[in-house]
């Protein structure tokens, strides 16, 4: 079992994040027509991830309808939309986290560089080392801070010697902005940290295996404003080295951290634009209605 | 993009706050429009009572400016408006400055009316004041209508009118300067007319600014400091 999958199982046991995706709510906005294709700028030059005609089904229920999107290298892209719009489902299909759900099927072309994500020969554990994930609730292993971060590198055999591993742990904790707070107690339990620290520990654990893309599923929704501000600052710094896709319910957070914003509505990708454009003059009516809080 | 299409916010308090800002802007617009009309009447008919009224309305206009700005700041702080709501707040808070300045210019005209009532009427210039005054007054009314109805096309018309007012102002200036050279005894009285015309021309500029804010509000494009042709192109672009 690989890190991400184990985490996901732990995470879902007490988290109903996967549930609303199936139970699509009736909304008064349903009368507004969907655009024939996504408006704005869904595609970029030389994308890190190239996703075309993605459809996701839960048994007979289609959760994602023909979504095409590029994620640029070192870009922070935020996925926003009302509950049940499919943004989390879409995010989870980017590192095959949906494989853990039996009734879930993903169709379409999903590529990380030239690698087909759904190639049957692809080692999913390898994939999840390249595309890491941070979850809504901080979920450190009940191990020491050091072992939490060292878990991935050990699993993937990234460090032969003790001092190599020490270096990876220190660098990861430094990148996650946690080193100064925990360097004197690396061997105390990760679960003893505060919520915000735990989430940064989880980010350190994710980046310890040097992923290329980091997926974040509402990483701040369980944190207070100060801890949230630290994570947001961190996202900005991490974007220098990593490509980041973040699902968030906080539109202000999307506005603060992301370069581009993608708006999902009932399983369709309505609009993708520069974040500034989305929050000042969105092109599509549905985006406008959601951004300004006019769903009723 | 028709804001009203989506009707109400999920938050009724937010609705009320936006509604209140719009109502106060319209109230302020109505007051200022009346000030302009009264100031013109006072000048043309040497009516000092009416001129005094223009000057007293000034306080109410100033109060409204402060009140609307406070309301805008409150919505920004408490609601973090986005998209068309954000543009509404920005457009309103800029438009109130222009309205307040129009009020100031009207007060200047009213002061000139008082002066002329005291010193005796000017021998020349009333035709020009009436003509440019009506023109500017209509511009202001159209700009406020455009704001109330989110009408970008009408806002472009206001901007186009402003160019005409500028031309009329320049030709009136030439005529009045010539007159002063011919009859130096009338200089001080004609100067009062010239200051009034100058104030009217400025009111036209402010009406144009309000129109530009309407275009920003409706279309999301900043059309300040560009030609009328470019402005029209921007407005038509997304239809």
UniProtKB/TrEMBL annotation, chain B:
Coiled coil: none
Function: Plays a role in the regulation of phosphate uptake.
Protein family: Belongs to the PhoU family.
Entry protein name: Phosphate-specific transport system accessory protein PhoU
One Pfam family cited in the UniProt record for this chain: PhoU
InterPro entries referenced in this protein's UniProt entry, alphabetically: PhoU, PhoU-like_sf, PhoU_dom
Domain annotation PhoU: ranges: 25-111, 129-214
Superkingdom as given in the UniProt entry: Bacteria
Subunit structure: Homodimer.
Location of this chain's protein in the cell: Cytoplasm
PANTHER family (UniProt xref): PHOSPHATE-SPECIFIC TRANSPORT SYSTEM ACCESSORY PROTEIN PHOU
Biological source species: Alloalcanivorax venustensis ISO4
Keywords: Cytoplasm, Phosphate transport, Transport
SUPFAM superfamilies on file: PhoU-like
């Amino acid at each position: 079992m690989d890190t991400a999958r184990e985490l996901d199982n732990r995470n879902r046991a007490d988290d109903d994040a996967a549930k609303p995706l199936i139970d699509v709510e009736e909304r008064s906005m349903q009368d507004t027509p969907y655009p024939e294709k996504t408006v704005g700028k869904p595609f970029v030059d030389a994308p890190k991830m190239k996703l075309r005609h993605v459809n996701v089904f839960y048994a007979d229920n289609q959760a994602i309808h023909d979504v095409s999107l590029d994620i640029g290298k070192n870009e922070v892209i935020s996925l926003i939309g009302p509950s049940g719009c499919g943004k989390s489902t879409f995010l989870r299909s980017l590192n095959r986290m949906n494989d853990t759900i039996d009734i879930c099927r993903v169709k379409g072309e999903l590529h990380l560089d030239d690698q087909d994500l759904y190639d049957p020969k692809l080692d999913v554990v390898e994939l999840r080392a390249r595309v890491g994930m941070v979850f809504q609730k901080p979920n450190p292993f009940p191990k020491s801070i050091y072992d939490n971060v060292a878990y991935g590198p050990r699993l993937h055999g990234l460090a032969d010697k003790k001092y190599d591993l020490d270096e990876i742990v220190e660098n990861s904790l430094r990148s996650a902005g946690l080193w100064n707070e925990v360097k004197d107690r690396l061997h105390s339990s990760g679960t003893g940290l505060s919520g915000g620290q735990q989430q940064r520990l989880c980010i350190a654990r994710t980046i310890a295996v040097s992923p290329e893309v980091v997926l974040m599923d509402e990483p701040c929704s369980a944190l207070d404003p100060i801890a949230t501000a630290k994570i947001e600052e961190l996202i900005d710094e991490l974007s220098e080295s990593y490509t980041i896709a973040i699902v968030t319910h906080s539109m202000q957070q999307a506005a603060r951290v992301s370069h581009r914003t993608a708006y999902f509505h009932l399983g369709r990708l309505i609009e993708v634009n520069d974040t500034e454009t989305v929050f000042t003059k969105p092109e599509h009516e549905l985006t406008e209605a959601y951004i300004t809080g006019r769903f009723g | 993009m028709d804001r009203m299409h989506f009707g109400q916010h999920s938050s009724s308090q937010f609705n009320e706050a936006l509604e209140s800002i719009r109502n106060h802007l319209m109230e302020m617009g109505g007051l200022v429009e009346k000030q302009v009309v009264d100031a013109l009447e006072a000048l043309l008919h040497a009516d000092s009572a009416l001129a005094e009224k223009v000057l007293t309305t000034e306080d109410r206009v100033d109060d409204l400016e402060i009140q609307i700005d406070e309301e805008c700041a409150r919505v920004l702080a408490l609601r973090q408006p986005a998209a068309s709501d954000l543009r509404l707040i920005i457009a309103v808070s800029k438009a109130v400055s222009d309205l307040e300045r129009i009020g100031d210019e009207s007060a200047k005209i009213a002061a000139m009316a008082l002066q002329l009532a005291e010193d005796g009427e000017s021998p020349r210039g009333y035709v020009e004041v009436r003509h440019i005054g009506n023109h500017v007054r209509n511009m202001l009314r159209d700009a406020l209508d455009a704001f109330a109805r989110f009408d970008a096309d009408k806002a472009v018309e206001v901007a186009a009118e402003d160019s005409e007012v500028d031309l009329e102002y320049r030709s009136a200036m030439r005529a009045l300067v010539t007159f002063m050279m011919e009859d130096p005894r009338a200089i001080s009285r004609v100067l009062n007319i010239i200051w009034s015309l100058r104030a009217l021309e400025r009111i036209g500029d402010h009406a144009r600014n309000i129109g530009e804010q309407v275009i920003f509000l409706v279309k999301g494009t900043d059309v300040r400091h560009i030609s009328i042709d470019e402005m029209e192109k921007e407005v038509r672009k997304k239809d």
